[in-house]
Model the fold of this input.
Amino acid sequence: MSFKIVADSSANLLSFAGADYASVPLKIVTDEREYVDDVNLDTSAMLDDLDAYKGKSGTSCPNVGEWLEAFGDADYVFTVAITSNLSGCHNAAVQAKAVYEEQHPERKVCCLDSLSTGPEMVLIVEKLAGLIAQQLSFEEIETQIREYMTKTHLMFMLESVENLAKNGRVSPLIAKAVGFLNIRIVGKASDVGTLQQLHKCRGEKKGLETLLTVMEEHGFTGGKVRINHAHNPKAAQALLDLVQSKYEVEAVIAPMTGLCCFYAERGSVMIGFEG
Ligand code: X90
Done:
């Protein structure tokens, strides 16, 4: 029996060695061109282009056919998608599941709505790989991963929410708060998969300290952390140093790819952890 994990590119995980894995790209689109969020994308050049570009920019999620293609011919597929509250990704995966299971009645697909994005999706993918390696049944893996997902969290520090606001993914009220006076937004993926602002902080140092405080308030006591940054490796490392000064952790720092760079914007960091 073959198992495959398929996540959309908002996980910032274009490849993964721990299992048969595929990343399905979202796209960043303007009136002039389209940036596909895959290994060929130069995110720094994209952000520079977009800074210079005066027109509208947005994003689009993978369609049913793109999910289906990523399923390949696996017997059992687990999809991990960005929160269905902010994107149509999960919905398209669910439709792809229906087509796949109808075409191949012996195959099964489990679609997981992360209610999150980025590094929390990475934790889910890694856990799935571990469960598959234990040779558990498809049903048992589904039960255990859904249980695991109730314990993982995503927190972030954003330098700007301009693109989130322009694309209606955050309330205008939150949008007003950033972009001036050196303000950073510290927040989390809420229980229903929306962007929830917890604090406004002045400066990066204060923002990172606040990030650790809110992690602690959500049950963090060390363990696995996955950190993603938008062209800000220094802040990612500073956050890790801060966390490690108090806790034993097993950490990975990785850059955000296209989708998250577009929405989180230069300078931001996200952290996924187990509560
Ligand atoms: O379908 C699409 O076009 C994609 C839309 C995605 C919109 C949200 C992207 C968020 C990226 C920003 C900070 C973390 C927010 C977490 C909220 C759950 C990252």
User: Anything to note?
Assistant: The chain has a mean pLDDT of 96. The chain is about 40% helix and 25% strand. The longest strand covers residues 195-202.
